Amino acid sequence: MTNMRRTLAGPLGAVVLLVVLMSLAMIVAGTSPLDGFSALFYGALGGRSQIGETLVATSALLFPALGIALAFRGGLFNIGAEGQLLIGALFAGAVGAQLHVAGPLGIALLLVLGAIGGGLWGAIAGWMKARFNANEIIATLMLNFVAAYVSLALVSGPLKGPLATGAETAWLDQAYWLPTLLPGTRLSIGILLALAVAVVLWWLFSRTIFGFELRAAGDAPEAARRAGIDIGRITWLSLALSGAISGVGGATIVTGELHRFNTQLSPGYGFTAIAVALVGDLQPLWICLAAFGFGILEAGGLAMQASAQVPKDAIHVIEGLIILVLAARRYVAARAETTAV
Amino acid sequence: MPEPALVLRGIRKAYPGVVAVDDAHLELYPGEIHALVGENGAGKSTLSAIAYGETRADAGTVRASGTVGLVHQHFELVGRLRVWENVLLGREPRRGWRIDEAAARSRVLAVAERNGLAIDPNAFVETLPIGVQQRVELLRELDREPAVLLLDEPTAALAPAEIASFFATVQGLAARGAAIMIVTHKLQEVIAYATRVSVMRHGRIVAQMETAATSVDEIARAMVGGELPSVAARAATQPTPCLSVRALRAGSGETSVEDIALDVRAGEIVGIAGVEGNGQTTLADAIAGMIPYDGTISFANEGAQIGVIPQDRHREALVMPWSIVENVMLGRQHRPELRRGATLDRAHARADAQRIQERFDVRAATLDVPVRTLSGGNQQKIVVGRALIDDPNVVLAYNPTRGIDVGAAALVQSRLMQARNDGAAVLLISFELDEILALADRIAVMYRGRIVGEFERTNVDRGAIGRLMAGLS
Amino acid sequence: MAVLLISLVALTLIKATPLIYAALGGVISERSGVINIGLEGMMAIGAFAAVVISYYTREPALGILAGIGAGALGGYVLGIAATRFKVDQIVAGTGINLICAGGAAYGLVLIYNQPGASAQVPALGREYWVLVALAFVAAAALHWLLARTPWGLRIRACGENPAALASAGIDPLAMRVYAVTLSGALAGLGGAFLSLGELNLYSDGMTAGRGFIALAAVIFGRWNPLGATFACIAFGLFEALQYVLQGRIAWLPADAMQALPYIAALVALAGITGKVRAPAADGVPY
C-alpha cells in the first residue's frame, strides 16, 4: 500500500501540481484554464505539424538532459549544457557551411564535430576541477556566457554567412541535412539518435565498469577513491562526455532543423534540460518520457501564447517550481524510509 | 537521602518498527557519578537525549531540579573559532551591539579555574589536541552551571593519563553537588570511577548496581543477557615474512608518522595500540596506498593482495544507497572473475554476496536491499566479508568492531582470527586496547606518529602499554 | 587620457556596485552554510519588481525597496527549500533562477504587453551615487558585524558546524533561512540598482550572469566581505574596460570583449581554488 502510494505519488503529484499552477498562470493572464489548456494541447498534439514541433523540442531537450544526467550521476553539477550545446552547434555549423564531403559521411562528420565541440567545452570545466579543484558549477556557468559571446563574435564576423542578415553562418548544403523522419514536418531522424544515446547511457550506468565507477564517485566519493577509482579521471571524463552529448544535440539542431548555425538556436534548452533530467530521476529511460512531457510544454506554450494570450514564460516558472517540489518530495520519501528503520 | 536531581519515570520511546526505550526508570542524585551501560542499540543514547530534552518521549515524565547539560561523544565544536567563542556561543556577553570580548575571556578563565582545567581562551580550537578540545566541550556545559551533567562516551578519544585527569574534574564537580551520568562501554572505568551503574538491554533498564558490589564480568553478562560470545581459537602457525615497513614517513602536522619500522608475518596478527589521533590513520592510509609516503612498504610475494577494512564504514567503505550485491563489487570491479569485457558479471557478484551472507550471518531481507537499511553490525559484516572474500595475503583492519553489537563484534573478530590461522598477515589498528590484547600475537604502541614500544603476546604488560600510549616511558 | 582614466574609474565603480551587493549576499549565505546559486534569479526578480513599482508609483525609491523585498522573498523560498525540505542547494537555486527569470518575463507580457523589455520608468537620478557609496559602507559594516557581534559569531558557527550552534540552543535551520533571506534582499538591491540606477527599464537577461560572477567573487574574496568587494571591483573593471576600449582595439570584436569578465572569473577560479578554504559546512545540509 505505502509502496504503491509512493510510486504513484511522484508522477501523479507532479502532473496535478502542473495542472494547478498552469491554471493559475492562465487565470492571472485573463484566460480560462479550459481555453488555455486546449490551446496548449492543440498546439502540441493537434496535428501532424504540431506533433512534429513537439518532437523537435523533445529531441532538443533530450540530448542535454541525458548529458546532464551523466554528469549528475557522477556527482558533478554540470549547469553548462547550454554552452556545450551551443559550441557543438557552432562546430557543426561553421564546418558544415564550408563542407565538401560525400553526403552521409559529411553528416556523420558534423555530428562528430558537435560531440568534439561540446566535449571540449565540458572538458575545460572537468580539467579545471580535476587539476585545480575549481568549482564545476561556477566554471560551467561562466562557460555558458563565454560560449554565447564567443559564438556571437564569430558569426557576426569571420564566420558570418555572405548572405546572412543576422548573426548566423551560411546555410548547409542540402546534402548535409539530416533526413526528415516525419514528412511534412521539421522533425529529423536526430530524435532516433537521442533515443539511441538514452539506451546506451542506460547500458553504461547499469552494466559497465565505467558506469559503476561513475556512480560510485557520485554517490560516495571517498569510498570510491578507496576502491581504487581514479576520481580525477572520472571527473574530466564525465564532464567531457556530458558536454559531448549536449554538443551532438546542438549539431542535430543545425543539421536536422535549422540547417545553419544561429546564435538564437536554443531558447534555453540547456537549462530546461536540468528540469527534464531531475524529473526523469536521472534515469535515461524516464528522461525520455520527461523530455516528451517538456516538449509538449515548449511547443504548446508557443501556441498557448499566440491563441490564448498566456505568456509562454509561465512555463519556465512552472519548470522551476517542479524542480523545487520534486526535489523536496524526494527528501520526504527518503525521510520516511530512514525513520522506518 | 537527598532529593534526586533528575527523575525519569516510565519513559517510552518508539520509532517505526522498533521500541528504543521501554518503561525506563532512573533517578540521579546530587554528588553521584552514575554509569549507563549497554550494547549498541540498547537505547542509551535515546534515553540520554530524552533526559537532556533533545528528544521527546512518547510516554513517561522527566523532572530535573536544575539545568541539564550534555557533552557529546563527537565534539560539537567549531574548529575555526576561538575557545571563548565556542564556550560562550549563544550566551555572548554584550556591550551594545558587539561582544564584550574582555568579559568573555575572563568568564571562560574563571569557569576553567573553578574546575581545575587549564585552557587558553584565545586559542583556535582546531589547533588544540583532542584532550584539550574535550575540555572546551566540557567548559561550555560547565558555564551553564548544570545541576545534571550527561557525558556521552567522554573518554573514547582520551589517553589513559588524560582519562584520569578527566575523571578528577568530574569527581570534583560531583563533590560540589552536581549529578553526573556517564554513558559508556568501558566497563573498567565504570568500576574505577562511577558510584552506581544502570544496565540497558533492548530498551529496558535490566539491572542497577552499586559499583562497589559488582564486577566487570557481572555487568558484561547483564548487558548481553547471558554468556559472552566466544572468539575463534588461535591456531599454531609458522609465521613467515609477508609485509615489511621501513623508515616510513608520511602525512603532515599532528597526524604525521615518522620513522616507522614494522613487520607483519603471514600467520600472525600485529596489533597497533594507541589513542586516537596519534598517526594511525596516516599509517593505515600509507599501507593501503591512499597517500604518498617516503620510505618503503614491501610485500614478500609478488602481487600480494591486500584486504582493507577502513575505519569509517559509512564514508570510506560502503555506498549507502546501493544494494549489498553492488557494494560487494566495490573495489573488486577490475578482478578478472567479475568482469566480462567492459561490463560487470552480476551473477558472479551475487554469488559472492551470498557467500558473504552465509559466512557472516548477514541479516537482510534480500541481497538487493540498500545497505543503508541494515544495522551497523550487518553493514560491518559486509565490509569485513568483502575484505576477506578473495583470501588476501595481507589484511588491514582499522577499528573493525567499532560501534557494533557484541555478537557481530565476536563474529568479526573470529573471522580475522581465522584469516590469521589460514596464513594471512593481519595488521589490526584499534583504539580499544582490550580488542588488541584479545587478538594480537604482537603489539606495537603508537604515540605522536612513532612506534614507542613493542610487546610479544607472551610478555604483555597492560600497565606499560597504557603508559606508552600516554607518552610516558 | 585623464578624462579616459576618470571615466574608467567611475564606470568601474558603477559596474562593481550591483556585483558587490550580490556578493555580500553570497558571503552571508555561504558563511551560514548555504550556497546561493539563486543570486542570479534574485537579482533579476529584484530588478523587475523595482521597475514595476516605480512604473505604478512613479517613485523610484519605492521601486528600490520593492526590489529588496522581491529578492528577499526569493531568498526565503530558497532558504525554506534548502533547510526544511532538504532540497539540494544547487538544485533549489537552479529552480529559483528559472522561476525568477520566467516570472519576470511572464510579468513583462502581462504588464507591458510586450515580450523582452518593460516600458521606460522613472529611475534614480544622480542619487544612484548614494547606492554606489552605500555598497562600500555595507561591505565594511558586514565585515564588522561578522567579526564582532553575537549575530556574526552565530552566522559563522552555523556555516562551520551547525550542530555546535544547535547545542548552544539556537536553531541552525532558522538561522540559515534568515541568512539566505537577507542574502536575497541584498541581491534584490543589486538588481534594482541595475534596472533603476544604471538604466530605467527591465529587459530579459539584463542580469547577464552577474549573480554567478558575484558567487565567484565570494570565493576569490575568501568568503570575506572586504575581499569579495575587491574581487567585484576587479570584475567591474573588466566590464568597464570593454566600454572604454570599444573601437580602440581593432582586432578584438566588441562581442568577444563582452566575454572578458567571465573569462577573468574562470582564470581566477582556477588560480585561487586550493589556496582558500570554504566554511566547513558550506553547502552541507543540516
What report would you give on this structure?
The complex is a heterotrimer of chains A (341), B (473) and C (286). Chain A has 341 residues and is an all-alpha fold. Chain A has a domain of 206 residues. In chain A, 76% of the residues lie in helices and 0% in strands. In chain A, helix 3 crosses helix 12 and helix 7 runs antiparallel to helix 12. Chain B is built from 15 helices and 22 strands. The two termini of chain B are 45 Å apart. The mean pLDDT of chain B is 91. Chain B has two domains: 219 residues, Rossmann fold, CATH 3.40.50; 229 residues, P-loop containing nucleotide triphosphate hydrolases (Rossmann fold, 3-Layer(aba) Sandwich). Chain B has a six-stranded mixed beta sheet with strand order 5-8-9-3-10-11, with helices on both faces. Chain B has a six-stranded mixed beta sheet with strand order 16-19-20-14-21-22, sandwiched between helices. A three-stranded antiparallel beta sheet of chain B has the order 2-1-4, with helices on one face. In chain B, helix 11 crosses helix 12 and helix 12 runs parallel beside helix 13. In chain B, 32% of the residues lie in helices and 27% in strands. With 473 residues, chain B is of the alpha/beta class. Chain C is mainly alpha-helical and 286 residues long. Chain C has twelve helices and no strands. In chain C, helix 3 packs antiparallel against helix 4. Chains in contact: A-B, A-C, B-C. The interface between A and C is large, with 50 and 48 residues.
Indicate the overall shape of chain C: globular
**What general outline of chain A do the C-alpha atoms trace?**
globular
The percent range for strand residues of chain A is under 5%
- Major sheet details of chain A: none
* Global mean pLDDT of chain A: 88
- Judged by helices, strands and strand pairing, the structural class of chain C is mainly alpha
Residue share in helix of chain A: over 70%
Please give the count of helices of chain C. 12
Question: Any idea what the radius of gyration of chain A is?
Answer: 20 Å
Number of domains of chain C: 1
**Percentage beta strand of chain C:** under 5%
Number of strands of chain A: 0
Low-confidence stretches of chain A: 1-8, 333-341
Spell out the helices and strands of chain A N to C: HHHHHHHHHHHHH
Strand segment count of chain C: 0
Q: State Rg of chain C.
A: 19 Å
CATH topology of chain C: ABC transporter involved in vitamin B12 uptake, BtuC
